[in-house]
Amino acid sequence: DDKAPILHEALSTFVRTLLRGICIEVLLDDGSVIFPHTSLNSEMTHITLDVNEAQRAIPLCDVERVATARELRTKNILTSIQPYLDDRCCTLVLRGFEFVTFRLDNERHREYFAACL
């Protein structure tokens, strides 16, 4: 498959970036946003959101799906932030029916983020 090296490089870059950590917009239930420092732990088992001394570690094994706003609507997965979602949003659907929604700069970045995650 001639796309395998490209996919491998994209995934490697994504992992390296997340291991260092990035500041990424997270949408809260009321539509407001926070900009936590988001990183992947060295074992690559948890994504950590770090904002103002508060930290949340999300075990990747708890992520049941990564969904766009359209996919959430199509699958009838209703969230309290539904009115605030747009094509830049990528929602982690976690075990226990919890959600974490990231909003990227544009739709292309969202597609990349969702595919790599």
From TrEMBL:
InterPro entries: ISP1_C, PH-like_dom_sf. Residues 14-114 form the ISP1 C-terminal domain. Signal peptide: none annotated. It holds the Pfam family ISP1_C. This is ISP1 C-terminal domain-containing protein. Gene3D superfamilies: Pleckstrin-homology domain (PH domain)/Phosphotyrosine-binding domain (PTB). It comes from Alexandrium andersonii.
